[in-house]
Amino acid sequence: MGKAKMSGAKALIRTLESQGVEVIFGYPGGATLPIYDELAKSSIRHVLTRHEQGAAHMADGYSRATGKTGVCMVTSGPGATNLVTGLANAYMDSSPLVAITGQVPRPMIGNDAFQEVDITGITIPITKHNYLLQKASEIPHSIEEAFYLASTGRKGPVLLDIPRDVQLEIFSPHQAKYPALEGYRPTLAGHPGQIKRAGSLLKSAQKPLIIAGGGVSLASARDLLVRLAEKADIPVVYTLMGKASFPNSHPLCFGLMGYHGRIEANHAISNADVILAVGTRFGDRSTGPLNTFATQAKIIHTDIDPAEISKNVPSYIPIVGDAGQVLEQLVELVPEKKHDQWTLELRETADRHPLKGKSSGVTIPNILRILKSLVQDPIIVTDVGRHQIFTAHYFPVDSSHSFVTSGGLGTMGFGVPAAIGAKVGRPGRPVIDIAGDGSFMMTCQEVAAAVAEDIPIVVLVMNDYCLGMIKQLQDAFYGRRYEACKFGRNVDFARLAESMGAAGFKVIREDEIAPAIEKSLAAGRTAVVDCVLDDPGNVYPMVTGSSLLEYVE
Amino acid sequence: MRHTISILCDDTPGVMTRVSGLFSRRGFNIESLSVGHTELPGKSRFTIVTTGDDAVLEQVRKQLQKLVHVIKVWDIKQTEAVEREHALLKIEVVDKRRAELLQIVTAVQARIVDSSASIWILEVTGDTGSVDNAFNLFKDYHILESIRTGKIALERGPSRVMKK
């Protein structure tokens, strides 16, 4: 940055450029207009969303598909509060995001000014860190710090709130030294002693198991995990967030674990003698009841966040560190070994418990099966609900950063905007959002943004005219008293899509599935397929008892 | 189990909200909290008394450590530290009990820091137990107002949290 005087807004855009930002997902307002005026002169692309929540999810989807930090920008007040769900979603799934909000001018802060809200106060619990900038001169280093914080250690969203008069303030940028972040020192390498202990425990194991969490993908350590699993012949199960952390078609992969996990995956957890858990926080949907979780196993837990160690599940050998570095250390140490009997036990369990979803008709498993045969190496995005779990089971994902889902927060409406963000980051790959009719309606207006910005995604709406997961829970636990889960007359999603300039298709018969998907993939613009399910079907397996071994399948 | 936690952090706007908010949203209890400047420029130090078993304490410590402005968090062992609380009591003094009240003031090493015809303001300093004790002894008198700070604590010996 030169010595010339400039405005805070200009310094902001310059700093974003120097951080390598390619795209900002945003929605303007009075309190960000000075920034937009500068953005117009920049090479940074701006994607105008239709709602601020969409901006946050797009930045999030962009980040998950690329591994880079996503950026969103909205105005003060309602613009900022509309970001909240998106920030919480990114926070729960450790997605690196930088969010910029406009704020009312400094002299008006605290006076309940028009479109004023204390967004730094509101977002403390759902951001890794946040800033309310007081001077234009703080902008350059604060932005740099925000990117550093978002993308290192346990990744997450960082918010910068910039008052309008700070954006307009003229100042002379200078290369000043700023205090280092004294309290922020993420541990990256695993403690050598702990690594050694983990190595010998794995060596002595008869029934070892790896749990692959989302942290493996966040650390881009998928290939190292494959090397470790293959070298020591250790079966792998994954959490929902870890689906893309290990190739799903790999012979050592035994599927999704947990509350909706595969029988063989949960059997593996319940019978393993040593578990290596990598980049997972042992969330309740992954573990089921904690007092019956992995009771036979000594657990080696490695995570970049020390606070996750022994938070939910006590660990026998804790290793704080970056999944990539720890796995690299471990790969060297573990001996080549075979566990034929153990993997055979799991394979036989798997054979005894095949997935029982219907592979014919207009059903979610069948649509996913057909989709798989028609598309090469897609990025699969999901919304939240029954279709999400179906997708986790029935659509194998074999490359990294290729499964984008809202895991921790379970945000309905995540799918469409996240798919748009993913497509912006990975324009060369097909991006397909598997949505539910409930989820789709929450953020479907972003289809208009995708069309206007020429971002061709495909949305398959699994339309069962109800809130499927709610209905399933009412089936299982509420005596089939279906309260508030049926929509009655639903929207015509194909015509809704067409009204926004997208291609719209409606699938009622099985023989319409493949043509609709093919046309959507070839449409060259965003396409929405309304799949009217003839047999919605509940998603199983589902744990119904006090341990992972009590289930309905 | 009661624990005394010390937190060294940047002295920056909002740090109090971040620290206290973390306790409430994660369901940790704060019995008392005090915060102030230290010998280190730009740094503040909290002393927080909290309750919970060892696992809770460990989570408190780790979660606090994740706050970007927090530099160090540690548990202070009562036996290895000097602990102080400070209290002020405004007491109505009636003539016939003046002498006996003065005896108690002397016994608990309180100080009369303000006095008028019938009102004394007493200052009491000590560890939690002795401040409790003083309150116990004064409770038979007419206490118009009273206030006590949270505990502050400093470990004995040459250790220091951070060099300047």
Verbal overview:
The complex is a heterodimer of chains A (553) and B (164). Chain A is an alpha/beta fold and 553 residues long. Chain A is 37% helix and 17% strand. In chain A, the strands form five sheets. Chain A has a six-stranded parallel sheet with strand order 3-2-4-5-7-6, with helices on both faces. A six-stranded parallel sheet of chain A has the order 11-10-9-12-13-14, with helices on both faces. In chain A, strands 16-15-17-18-20-19 form a six-stranded parallel sheet, with helices on both faces. In chain A, a hairpin with a 7-residue loop joins strand 21 (542-543) and strand 22. In chain A, helix 11 runs parallel beside helix 14. The mean pLDDT of chain A is 96. By secondary structure, chain B is α+β, with helices and mostly antiparallel strands. The chains are: A alpha/beta (553), B alpha+beta (164). The A-B interface holds A 120-121, 124-125, 128-129, 132, 149, 154, 179, 181-184, 305-307, 309-311 and B 9-10, 13-14, 17-18, 21, 25, 42, 55, 58-59, 62-63, 65-72.
Sheet/helix structural class of chain A:
alpha/beta
The CATH superfamily title of the largest domain in chain B: ACT domain
The helix tally of chain A amounts to 23
Mean pLDDT of chain B: 94
CATH topology of the largest domain in chain B: Alpha-Beta Plaits
Shape of chain A: globular
CATH architecture of the largest domain in chain A: 3-Layer(aba) Sandwich
Biggest interface and residues each: A-B, 20 and 22 residues
Distance between the termini of chain B: 34 Å
Count of DSSP strands of chain B: 9
Instruction: Write down the Rg of chain A.
Output: 24 Å
- Strand residue percentage of chain A: 15-25%
Named CATH topology of the largest domain in chain A: Rossmann fold
**What is the strand content of chain B?**
35-45%
Integer tally of domains of chain A: 3
Helical proportion of chain A, percent range: 25-40%
Tally the beta strands of chain A: 22
